[in-house]
Automatic annotation (TrEMBL):
Gene Ontology biological-process entries: mRNA processing
Family matches, as Gene3D superfamilies: Aldolase class I (3.20.20.70)
Basic and acidic residues: bias regions: 420-450
Record flagged with keyword Thylakoid: no
Functional description taken from the UniProt entry: Catalyzes the synthesis of dihydrouridine, a modified base found in the D-loop of most tRNAs. Specifically modifies U47 in cytoplasmic tRNAs. Catalyzes the synthesis of dihydrouridine in some mRNAs, thereby affecting their translation.
Protein name: DUS-like FMN-binding domain-containing protein
Chain intervals for the UniProt region annotation (Disordered): 420-457
Native source organism of the sequence: Arthrobotrys musiformis
Catalytic activity: a 5,6-dihydrouridine in mRNA + NAD(+) = a uridine in mRNA + NADH + H(+); a 5,6-dihydrouridine in mRNA + NADP(+) = a uridine in mRNA + NADPH + H(+)
Source species taxonomy: Eukaryota, Fungi, Dikarya, Ascomycota, Pezizomycotina
Domain DUS-like FMN-binding: 71-314
Amino acid sequence: MNRLLPSVRQALRLHRFRYYATMTMTDHAIAPPAVPPHEPQPEDIPATNISAEALAPAPVIPATEYGKVVLAPMVRSGQLAMRLLSLKYGADIVWGPETIDKSLIGCERVENPTTGCVDYVRTGLIFRACPPREKSKFIFQMGTAAPDTAVAAAKIIAQDVSGIDVNSGCPKPFSTHAGMGAALLKDIPRLLSILTALVENVGLSTPYALPISVKIRLLPTVEETHALVTSLCKTGISKLTLHCRTPPMRPREPAIRDALAGTAKICKDAGVEFFVNGDIKGWDDAQEVIKEYDIQGGAMIAVAAEANPSCFNPNHLGGLKPWREVVTDFMLIAMSVENPISNTKFCLLNMVPGKNQMHKVLSRAKTYRDICEIMGLECTYPEELDLGTLKTQRVRAQEEKDAQIQAERAERQKKLAEFKRKKAEAEAGEQKDAEEGSNKRIKVDAEERSNSTTGAAVAELAATDMLLPGSAAEPVQAVV
């Protein structure tokens, strides 16, 4: 029978309603998931005997709404591999790490057909994205202190992202020393001019059609915070995130939510999507905060996502996954996008419990092959790229440099030894020649002295013979 009787369809609807009614879901939770594809669909269920109860109309399940739960921007934990893993586990949107606008200007956009990634490269890798896998849910966060450079950088990255966010909450010196991050909270006119420039040049009403957003921290008083939010909403931004801590506060200090309800109302009245950040532990915790403060938008997760990105998975769908499963998923994604080994190792050490033996072993790993061997995985990372962490590469480069210096030194010593040998041989030859010459001179001198002695003796003998009496020789008389 290809078509079901109406009574059969009603029975199925009733069955589903009773099933979902037993689930512990609050009125602000996500709507019940659809029937999984592997379960029998209505068209495949054969007709059966239907009871009278099944013929009664099934109650209508009210549609439920839930707020978005998103990955917060984090300098090291917001890189590509972690963004993709967060999306896999249910994150609605992912923010990228803060990237300085000036670092993008002058970059070359390089596509990798093997991984589908796009690299922005200058002297080195500045930023990596994977548009086929994340573009529709990826917000690029920018560190900037000037409208012109912000617009220039936004136009460069626009084709690979779905929104531009201005960081005006980071309290770290590398950001604030140049007037970026939390420093903008002390220069509100500059912040407003940056957002206005972005909205007018790359915003939704332009050919780039990018929603512009901003992430801020609390000001000293609730009134100052609300006044700032009101001004920011007038610039034309689409989203606003409030980190419920002041710039000097550290993550270990509890978030302050005194200004949250008022901020949510201001954004709601202005039509700006609002996100709360600070001490959000997971999907279910996010929904409670969203409902409590009537937030039209969502909540950001940071620290909890660093430890276990499956925190985006609702409890009624299984909740947190075991860390071993999470790190395996992460490694597979990291290798698929050729994530830098230093970032991969950093993220893994955040996800593996510190007291576990694997944490100690991983801390000594230097390459993807080392990590895969420890985890029992097949390594698919290109061998020619598996050069180790930056520290390992620096150590290896230093070792190679030292080895080269030693080789050059040994070569110089060899040449010096050869030079000394030849010099010694030359000196020995010269000495031999000198000795031979000296011997010749001595012999000649001896011969000369011998000849001289002989001649003198002969002359003396001859003179003696001439003077002896009765000599046969007679003196010659001179003729006058």
